[in-house]
Design brief:
By secondary structure, the protein is an alpha/beta fold. The chain folds into three domains: 7-146, 2-Layer Sandwich (Nucleotidyltransferase, domain 5); 164-328, Nucleotidyltransferase, domain 5 (2-Layer Sandwich), CATH 3.30.420.150; 354-546, Hypothetical protein af1432. Helix content is 49%, strand content 18%. A hairpin with a 3-residue loop joins strand 2 (39-47) and strand 3. The longest helix is centred in the middle third of the chain and has 23 residues, at 218-240.
Length: 550
């Protein structure tokens, strides 16, 4: 039998260890476990822009993911980052004291494994590597910076894995809004498919920092906040909402659950309200002082300054989209970290296909830049046949396969900008576009593969100009060689075949195309794409056809 106590603790006012007061190890006292088979204790640490939180989870194949404990401490490291580009010594000292306490709590629980991630306040500092090294040396905790798309994907995954309603909700037009300290991510779904994802510089701490720099009076603070948000959302609506009917808004935020709970208590609703109910309630809050908001919602007064930017942002998003319903699932990044770990270690299984979301996002990027659907399909078909037939030679996993598929789909997006410099334009578009679920490194790998897939003498010298580590450089080289061969097989925007097979035979890769079309163009230009492939893999691709030509 597994015995556990669940306790959520807000330690905003808790003094940390050493000379500053009580050691936070007391938070874990009194908890004892009789560990069952195939059960682990896992800690998820979120080093956020305005709060450092840690959740302890029990993971088991029988029970899935169960929250055991939640400790949190408010420290606004994002204020330093967004103002000066660096985290001050005082903030750094406070951060390390908090994390040392968290490390002791993990030891008290005898945690089996942990993951600690830093968000925008960490990744946007001028000296990120120095900060992370100091944290490791002073606290014993290894914190990894999350790219924006990785962070949002973990939040998104936590909702999809935790809620049975998720797939039903995104079956209709849905805006998934993830509010952070530095920015807000808006992902649009229609018919259960991810249409697009956009990062807006509307993080609640960044908004407050910007407004405070303007030194507004009490009377015009709300007006300036509304103008900042309305201006950004006006552009968003023009670019992304023309052809999508948004009926639902799903929000991840630390403070909005207080508002939803207050409204829900009045109307008998749990975790969701109508758009009209929300807007009316927020309009009432806007006339209140921070002290009055604190009393109305039962939150610390200092949190009111971060609640109103979130509340106002969602109010305007409801107006812009016309959404009928607002849903707050009540998850945090720590939940996403835990669910990601649990899924990868087979404690939980999701019916939702997250890889399909990434592919769908790439397909819609191609559509936005008027890429050829037929040519993209042919390129993907050829690339996947080549990759799947060479697993023993390239040694890459399914993640490498996904990156090759994305490169094949996005290869010609640059033609929308420039026909003569489409390679460079494609690279810039991919690097400048969020693909939720990909790290910055993975996006750079895809963009570099696309850049080097165009006919020119690139090879290793030019590839080594990038700041790739050896493993990433080798992946880029292999994927580029395979995509070049696929380019040789798919030259025409006309659909010429439905099936491509590839198989290794002696020193050759035999690529057989089943077609009833004339492939004279492809055969004539195929040879120029072979040299790099031969050099990288030590085998020669051979193109063959079967079928009756028309």
């Amino acid at each position: 039998m597994i015995i556990c106590l669940v306790q959520k603790i807000d330690v905003n006012n808790l003094k940390m260890s050493g000379s500053k007061g009580q050691n936070p190890i007391v938070l874990a006292q009194g908890f004892r476990y009789k560990r069952g088979l195939c059960m682990k204790l896992f800690a998820a640490i979120d080093v956020g822009s305005y709060e450092i939180g840690m959740k302890i989870f029990e993971l088991s194949q029988k029970r899935g993911v169960r929250e055991v404990d939640y400790v949190r401490h408010r420290v606004e490291i994002g204020t330093d980052t967004y103002n000066t580009g660096k985290i001050s010594y005082e903030r750094m000292d406070e951060l390390c004291e908090i994390l040392k306490g968290y490390h002791e709590i993990m030891n008290a629980y005898k945690v089996d494994s942990y993951r600690a991630y830093g968000t925008s306040a960490i990744r946007e500092t001028e000296n990120t590597s120095v900060i992370l090294d100091q944290i490791r040396l002073r606290t014993g905790i290894n914190v990894s910076p999350l790219s924006n798309s990785e962070q949002r994907f973990l939040d998104y995954k936590s909702v999809a894995l935790k809620s049975e309603q998720f797939d039903h909700i995104i079956d209709r037009g849905t805006a998934f809004i993830d509010i952070g300290g530095g920015s807000t991510q808006v992902s649009l779904f229609s018919n259960s498919h991810l249409i697009t994802t956009v990062n807006l510089r509307l993080g609640i701490l960044r908004l407050r920092t910007t407004l405070n720099s303007l030194e507004p009076t009490t009377g015009n603070y709300d007006r300036l906040l509304s103008e900042l948000i309305a201006n950004e959302l006006h552009s968003f609506k023009k670019l992304y909402l023309n052809n999508i009917d948004i009926q639902n808004i799903v929000v991840i935020d630390d403070y909005l659950p207080y508002i939803i709970q207050k409204i829900g208590n009045k109307h008998g609703l749990i975790n969701q309200v109508t758009g009209d109910q929300y807007v009316k309630f927020v309009d009432v809050l806007r006339s209140m002082s921070p002290a009055q908001i604190s009393r109305e919602l039962g939150i610390p007064r200092e949190n009111a300054s971060l609640l109103m930017p979130s509340a106002t942002l969602i109010k305007y998003m409801i107006r812009v989209t016309g959404a009928e319903r607002l849903w707050i699932p009540g998850v945090t990044l720590s939940d996403g970290i835990a669910y990601d770990y649990a899924e990868k270690n087979k404690f939980v299984k999701s019916d939702h296909n997250f890889e399909e979301d990434i592919i769908s996002c790439a397909e819609n990027i191609s559509l936005r830049y008027q890429g050829s659907q037929v040519l993209g399909d042919q390129m993907v078909l050829c690339s996947m046949a080549i990759f799947d037939s060479m697993k023993k030679l390239h040694g890459m996993d399914k993640r490498g396969r996904l990156l090759l598929q994305l490169a094949a789909r996005l290869r010609d997006v640059g033609r929308f900008v420039s026909m003569s410099d489409s390679a460079e334009a494609s690279y810039s578009i991919i690097m400048g576009t969020e693909i939720i679920g990909l790290s910055h490194l993975e996006r750079e790998i895809v963009a570099t593969v696309v850049l080097n897939s165009y006919p020119k003498e690139i090879y290793y010298e030019a590839l080594e100009d990038n700041d790739f580590d050896e493993k990433s450089l080798l992946m880029v080289t292999k994927l580029t060689a395979m995509l070049r061969v696929a380019v040789g097989l798919a030259r025409s925007p006309k659909k010429k075949y439905n099936e491509v097979k590839a198989s290794l035979k002696d020193k050759s890769l035999i690529i057989t195309i089943d077609t009833r079309e004339d492939l004279s163009l492809e055969k004539g230009l195929f040879e120029e794409e072979i040299p790099m492939f031969e050099e990288v893999f030590g085998i020669r691709p051979v193109m063959r056809t079967k079928g009756v030509f028309l």
